[in-house]
Amino acid sequence: MSIVINPISPVAFTVFGLPIRWYALAYIAAFVVGYFLFRTFARRPDSGLDMSRHELDDLFSWIILGVIIGGRLGYVLFYNLPFFISHPLEIFAVWHGGMSFHGGLAGVVAATFLFTRSWSRGLHVLDLISVVTPIGLFFGRVANFINMEIMGRPTDSSIGVFFNGVSDVPRHASPLYEAATEGLLLAIIMLGLYRYTKLRKYPGALCGAMAMFYAVFRIICEQFRAPDAQIGFLTSWGLTMGGLLSGVLFLCGAGLFFAAIRRR
């Protein structure tokens, strides 16, 4: 027997007739919580950073731009390029959905190094960002579930979810799987690594660890998540675009992690 859920409106509330969507609130919550956590960690004497409040505010503005621009361009390039070539103005219609974590990650990396203009300082910043990022992932995946986006593959198990009047068959609640693993579990792991290990003394090590853990959790969740309709499976044995990008991310994270340990 599957779990039957009545659909939740993607609009949380309206302000003067302007609809405020859950997805937008998820991004706002991610940025607000991430900012205060990052600032708290950055002010620790052992953070490796010496940044004023003004510098922190400027840095976070760059990071927000990196997330939005990188996330959107990543989706355009990796997930639906033919459509956007035919409809170029849709690239800017972010309210229609379509963001890529891997693209957003690349955007954050680029924005960080453009702002810091220092390899070592940039890695210190990315390490702290890696500690707070899973919280934002949690909010985003919950919003995906509310919007009935990136739902999982059909299942006849008791944990299958059926949206009343919307679903065709019960499906895995893959956004919630990702919220639990890439969000909550990864947040616990990264906070533990930051607080109880000496990895923060190795610039780039925490960033590399986060990339590896995220990639593993994402690849696992991809086994329950339905492939993007416009792409489908990339291979006969079920490789998805998210799985492919996560495999590349794991290799990059492993390379960065071991390079950081050796460089120290």
Detail the topology: elements first, then pairings.
Elements: E1 3-5, E2 11-15, E3 18-21, H1 22-42, H2 53-79, H3 81-86, H4 101-116, H5 119-146, E4 161-163, H6 174-196, H7 205-222, H8 241-263
Parallel strand pairs: 1-4
Antiparallel strand pairs: 2-3
Q: What is this entry, summarized?
A:
Helix content is 61%, strand content 6%. The protein has helices at 22-42, 53-79, 81-86, 101-116, 119-146, 174-196, 205-222, 241-263; strands at residues 3-5, 11-15, 18-21, 161-163. Strands 1-4 form a two-stranded parallel sheet.
Helix share of residues? 55-70%
The major sheet is characterized as: 2 strands, parallel
Q: Write down how many β-strands occur, each being a DSSP E stretch of 2 or more residues.
A: 4
SS content category: mainly alpha
Order of helices and strands: EEEHHHHHEHHH
What is the global morphology?
A: globular
- Strand arrangement across the biggest beta sheet: 1-4
Compute the gyration radius: what is it? 19 Å
Overall number of domains: 1
Low-confidence segments, ≥5 residues, pLDDT <50?
A: none
What is the beta-strand fraction? 5-15%
Structure annotation, total helices:
8
Distance between the amino and carboxyl termini? 54 Å
Oligomer: single chain
Average pLDDT number: 91
Question: What does this molecule look like?
Answer:
It is built from eight helices and four strands. By secondary structure, the protein is mostly helical. It has one domain (3-196). The strands form two sheets. Strands 1-4 form a two-stranded parallel sheet. A two-stranded antiparallel sheet has the order 2-3. It is globular and about 55 Å long.
